[in-house]
């Protein structure tokens, strides 16, 4: 299907299926059989989704320089373990069948089970969901700033969200305006934060204008929330703290507090002042994924941070009630995996596997079991809770592996729409 | 509105030997459109970010009007970073898209409406205020995005390569719009680009930077007619100025078999027996034979009335590329051998070692 012999593909993943896409056609004219319909945010460039050898890719048409730059940035972010979409390829030198040049494209892999914020409500976006999205975005922004990434266009639209045990985990989607520095200045961080605040307010006001925001949600309050969430986390992760040298337990306390927030301290600076009577500590290198790493080490399961926390809680509870206290952690984890987690996952009928990720199913099933037990004032056994959850909850959810619908709202063609409202009522 | 002053402002990154911006002294007048231009890594974006408050100023200071903003957080500087990627929200009207940032800032409804209307008049968007972005053309959407910045009535607009992600046609259109709009508004604007054509067409004045050091600041005409050093001479103008070495001889300069008269006063400042001379492609005379610098013609690019001859010559055993403007219809062809001489009085002379300009006079271009 490729129309040009000089097509240039730079790709980290050698996938010959890339050659089968119709690169000789402008993206807006691609035939339906190549296109997957997925919801997306408000985009500057035309972005479409296509099936590629068993997975879905997002294809963005842009200039060669921008595509290459963003590809490299995303590769760097991936290498340093920042949650972002996976870059697949940059394709330049595209021409149509008459030899006319076409825009270059950046291909990224669609993140399975990820959702744009516009797909996270059926009728209207509720205030608690909006707040959780903003909280997730604040965590992502702090992580990006810690590694020296200035985003330049922080917004809900440029982020994808994965469910994470009642919260959300945010992934960077659009790095076009970003740059990596050795470290960021306070001014750069403040600027990103201000951009985030204004963009989130704009996005929520837009939902409100379209009748898609719950009446109890104040767009400006919610968008202001990112400032506080960001600052609290930033201070916890990077702030220095002084105490008397007799209070050394405060070091352990700080480490635990960061662990609780999901971070490990890789490097801690410790200084003594005033002839040794005062100690000052400051985390120098922190690494997200405290619970994720522990879960992975014990069980081999790869989950989001809060899911991992939830699973570990269940594992620890299992260990304290079912296993002899002398048995080591690894053995107990192995037993929990075989007798608790895996039976739950296996119980999900094949046709429901695309609804949610296994770790999220497990989390929701635990919640369900808790509610059942509350209602019936008895300990509902696991097997009973699982079948009840599958039949009364999971079966009725939509598939979220690759969400289809609501259709995308990108505007690429000018369409004349005359609005009768007086604009003065709407500023 | 306000002026902007960089007062020996430096940005030094930790662990870097050379400052990214080195003692920048620059005054931007109230209402002026100043372009910072230079190759990648020259410090232009860093300078703009220092003004925006995104980069620390390690030495010196920056003032907006009379106010020292060196340590003021970005959002309190009363500047607007206008960037190309403002999203337009599809369910909001043009008026809402332009005014919502004021709403967040707590500006009351009446004031919002009046500021939005004022901006819309300037942007020729008055008739579209009640419409949704879908109903607008690409250029109109760009103007709505500008409107978002204008309604805040900042003291200074800052633009960092704002056109880089537009296609060529929209870029030229938007370039013109931005330049005329900021002049109508009379807002001081600092604009960063790597593209010297963009700089020449947009700026009231242009500041050329290289390796963190300001090379020259002046009007487009100043830079074109009187580049202060070899770097500016080669950077400003497209195709670039021809630059090659020549020997100082009695009464002037010798290159190839030709000599050119250059007054003694100019050459007295030279540090050696050679200088670098610069001649713009439009200031060269081409002949089939005779005295001058022999040039082998590689290719001739026809552009209608004019054309450009690209060739090469040999100066002291080194290959030097030469570009000459020629008639678009009657011209030598690839493979021909020609002889070139600079138009008298159209030679820029630079010191071979320091690269500094030796000619006192500006060289206005022929035709």
Task: Give a written overview of the molecule.
The complex is a heterodimer of chains A (427) and B (367). Chain A has 427 residues and is of the alpha+beta class. Helix content of chain A is 39%, strand content 19%. Chain A folds into four domains: 8-110, Phosphorylase Kinase, domain 1 (2-Layer Sandwich), CATH 3.30.200; 115-238, Transferase(Phosphotransferase), domain 1; 241-288, no CATH class; 291-396, no CATH class. Chain B is of the alpha+beta class and 367 residues long. Chain B folds into two domains: 4-225, 3-Layer(aba) Sandwich (Rossmann fold), CATH 3.40.50.300; 240-351, Nucleic acid-binding proteins (OB fold (Dihydrolipoamide Acetyltransferase, E2P), Beta Barrel), CATH 2.40.50. Chain B contains nine helices and 20 strands. In chain B, the strands form four sheets. Chain B has a six-stranded mixed sheet, sandwiched between helices. A five-stranded antiparallel sheet of chain B has the order 13-12-11-14-20. A five-stranded antiparallel sheet of chain B has the order 15-19-16-17-18, with no helix packed on it. In chain B, a hairpin with a 2-residue loop joins β12 (252-255) and β13 (258-261). The two termini of chain B are 39 Å apart.
Total domains of chain A, how many? Answer: 4
Query: Major sheet of chain A: size, sense and barrel closure?
Result: 6 strands, antiparallel
CATH superfamily of the largest domain in chain B: P-loop containing nucleotide triphosphate hydrolases
Report the radius of gyration of chain B as a whole number of Å.
25 Å
Kindly report the CATH topology of the largest domain in chain A.
Transferase(Phosphotransferase), domain 1
Q: Ends of chain A: how far apart?
A: 49 Å
Pfam family, one (chain A): Kdo
Protein name (chain A): DUF4032 domain-containing protein
InterPro entries (chain A): DUF4032, Kinase-like_dom_sf
Organism (chain B): Terrimesophilobacter mesophilus
